UniProtKB/TrEMBL annotation:
Mg(2+) binds at residues 212, 232. GTPase that associates with the 50S ribosomal subunit and may have a role during protein synthesis or ribosome biogenesis. Monomer. Associates with the 50S ribosomal subunit. This is GTPase HflX. Its cofactor is Mg(2+). It is found in: Cytoplasm. It comes from Denitratimonas tolerans. The keyword Cytoplasm applies. Residues 165-192 form a coiled coil. It comes from the Bacteria. Its main location: cytoplasm. Keywords: Coiled coil, Cytoplasm, GTP-binding, Hydrolase, Magnesium, Metal-binding, Nucleotide-binding.
Amino acid sequence: MFERSRRGERALLIQPFTAGHSDPSSLEEFAELARSAGATVVGSVPARIDRANPATLIGSGKVEEALSLCNAVDADLVLVNHTLSPVQERNLERALQRRVVDRTGLILDIFAQRARSHEGKLQVELAQLRHMATRLVRGWTHLERQRGGSIGLRGPGETQLETDRRLLAKRVDALQARLAKVEVQRTQMRRARVRQGVARVALVGYTNAGKSTLFNALTGADAYEADQLFATLDPTVRRLDLPGGEVVLADTVGFVRDLPHDLVAAFRSTLSEARDAQLLLHVVDASDPARDERIGQVDEVLREIGAGDIPQLVVFNKIDRLDDASARVDLDEDGAATRAWVSARTGSGLGGLRDAIASRLARERVSGRIHLPSTAGRLRARLFAAGAVQSEETCDDGWRIDLDMPLDAARQLVADADAEAAALRDLLPMDDRA
């Protein structure tokens, strides 16, 4: 056993990598994560792993090297840029005589510092408890004590570890129940926006790409922004005025490479703002040399949360940091806006971006006049409930309705109503009529 330092501010980084896959940018990002958590990076140890050591992940030689460097630079914390098993974390702590935190634990610590809303705090606590559940046996000797010795408590007793596990499980159940209630409330709010016919747009992207700065520039909001990873954790929703009407714009948490699956699961309700959007503004740092790689990593997370098929408009931000980039909007062969080049900091290109968003949303809506027979009363009621009816005329054999609604909502109605929705199906794009 050893006495854990409570300072935890001078951090040594261990960067595992496999042969042929050494990536300096990965270590730079991990160092930035450490600084975002409040640590001072005092050194790093690259550790090639041909086959992971089940006891410590890295080899014994690298463990000795890390211990020597920790002593030399007076590090009181070791951060490992990899997910560690509970056994590996515990063995490394014993060998290095310092607290060891893996990549998941570091990101959780940052999230705990940045969460501001009630829902965000609940989600962070839930993710932390799940991560902690398998790590209760670490360096605390009190976890081995047993209750007993008093009247009614004699016998085999209950270890402190078992008590902690039971209390932790109860807390997890309570958090899940509270989050379920919050999710119901958030779902009701989204349904209200759908009934009002308001289009939904969400900002997504790699962390520190400038999403919150762009959000503030477009909406005039005052969402927190800073040049650091995960500056914004809680989703913020504001109305955005566009040519042709208003939309709802949501700012969401940024992504990083290898985002732990537990975190994706814990923040699924927060990320539902992206999952339920009609258009995603995929914000990219145009000055980042690895921007193409970042785009792929964000797309992977979007697929994981069920948002991989939502239309995207890629927004290359921070063009003020480039010498040869100008504000513009790129179109595909069908005339649809696919990429916009802007600077949220200077405001360059924001007018073109607003026009591009409006034009893309217009392509994601269905409008026109349909005739519903008198037998399609259920579909008519659902169109009214969705806020799609612009005007209606009663005729001898039913209704003539002028409607305007999101394309995805129309697709859902066609799929649900089937035979009743023949008239609505004719308004869909050709690919959806089969």
